[in-house]
Structure formats: C-alpha cells, structure tokens
Structure prediction request, 344 residues.
Amino acid sequence: MTQQPISIIGAAVLYERMPSTPRHSYGVTLHASSYRPLLKVLDIDEWTFKRRIAVDGAIGGSGKINPRALLERLLREGLNVQWEHALEKVEEGPSDMSLHLKGGRTLDSSVIIGVDGPHSNTRKSLSPNTPLEVLPFVAFNGKRRVKKALWDSVYAPHMQDSTMIELKRGDVAMNIQVNEKMGDLVSISWVYSRPAHNTSDPLYRPSRPVSGATDIPDEFYEEIGALEDLKQPFREVFDKEKLQMERVLSWLMRTVEVELKELQELAKNGVFFMGDAVHAEPIIGGEGANTAIRDGVSLAECMSTNGVEGIPAWYDAQYPGWEASIRKSEKAIAEIHGDPKSSL
Prediction:
C-alpha cells in the first residue's frame, strides 16, 4: 500500500490558521468514552492524562472540565504544526487538489482531510450548497478572572467539588464554569441562553456575520439588569455593570449536515472530512468535542489498516451515528430551556 502525503486543515496537525499561542482558554467537557481511546495513541495513562489537562490539574485535581488549550498542547506534542496558515479555498487541479492559503501561497495535495470546524473553508469550497442551520435560541458567553479571595468567599461555597453550576429562570438558562485554576486567579466562563421569543427578538440575529459576535445589543444588558434575586455566585457574574465592562460574545446555535452521497463523491477526489466541519452540533446541548475526538481516533484506525481507500466504508459506518447525535443535540438544547417538545 503506497503512503500518500496528507494535508489536514484546522486540526493543529499540518496547517493551522491560528498563531502558535492560540487563546483557547475556555473549558470543554470530555467523556471517558471519548478520551480513553486516545491514551494508547499518546502512550499515557489515564491519571497522567487528567493531571495534564484538568482545570484543577495544577493543584492536584483531575476534574472533567478541561481547558482546550491544555488538550491541544498535549495532542500536538511531536507534530510539525504549520502555524498561521489560513486556508482561503480549495480547488480541484489537473491531478491533485490545490490549497490556496492567505498570502498567496498554493499547495497541491492528493489527500485532504478537512477538520476546520463549522465554518470550514474546505467544506464551503467543495460543498457550497450545504447550509449552516441556526436553531431558534439566543446565547451569550463571557470570561472573567476572579481573585482567589473572591473565589473562596463567593464562588467556592456554591461550586464545592463541581466545575460547573447551572440556574434556570423560566426558559432562561445560566451557567458558570471553571476554565482554569492558576495561582491567585481562577478563570471562569459563563453562558446566558434562552429560546428566541419571535423573529423580531433583538437578541436573535441568525444572519449576522461571524464578525458580529462582539456586537452586543443594548437589550441584552437591559435583560440582565432585569434579573432579580439571583443567588450567589450568579448575582456576582450576571451583574449588568460588570458585564458592560467586559468582552461578551453572541453565540449562534448552529448545525451542519453534509449529505452522505456528497461525502462519498468528494472522497473520490481525495477529500475527506470529520468533526464539526461536516456534522456540527450546537455549543449548548451538543457534544462536538467528544464526537470529533471519536472521529479522529476511529478515522486514524481505519487509515492505518485500510489506507484512504477505506474511508468511504468508514463514512458508511459513522454516518448514522452522526445523524443521531445531531438530533440528540437538538432535543437536548430544547430540554435545557424547559421545552422538550419544541419543534426545531
């Protein structure tokens, strides 16, 4: 079986658009069923794995919430990462596929694996008619660094041994999550979400550009200011004046589904996908990080045994699970906001 060079887009393996110190300091929840298959590949035991990436690993803990930056650092050890290589588009050339990078550089590759997320330029180039579906929910997110004294007095009594706590107010869901504990500071993130009220809801902007994520309507702060009798630490976090002084992001709850027959057609040209690039789930209620890890492990096993020729059969085996996971995530986000029967 001949060995073919493989170009991986967006996976911090070959071509990565971010600089060498990306600020992925938010946390992701990893399930044992997802990370345990990685242990053999990484040649690491489970205890060491947890200590390396857990939010409280620096102080001896082994929590389930893990800073994405620490996970990425572990996964890329020993790899040749080409940083700041942002892909603009992919085109079919005379014999190979051509990768056009920002700055004018063009690379030819006979095998491409697109792992560049929901906004995948690989997918947009080769499957332009696959839509990003936006679910009818509004969500806002922010991060904050809390001094240990404040953490100990306001947060710790309510967080106890947990790395995430949640609060419901009608159809509004609020959560606070620990991202990382580091010396005298604790990094936290928060999420405020609810169903869209109607098509004229000022907080629901499904057609906003990616760059519009930091354009926060005044109505959001008014909605936060109207919250009453919040218990700690939610009262501390969801404070109108504090949030107005911080960086807040508007999230869109998106799904992506590339049809199986289209994936099989692209495979004939040496173009393959996995993860959020082809089966994205909403951030709230979804399991995108875990499904992407499972994709990566199983695809690597497939290729090591059968080469790229085995990927079409891998698609056939994986696709029903991808579809089921997206439906599950849509149901989950509805249930989180108190309406499991809502039609999405």
In short: Residues 260 and 316 are 8 Å apart (CA to CA). The domain at 136-251 is CATH 3.30.9 (D-Amino Acid Oxidase; Chain A, domain 2). The chain has three domains: 6-18+81-133+254-336, 27-75, 136-251. Confidence is low (pLDDT under 50) at residues 340-344.
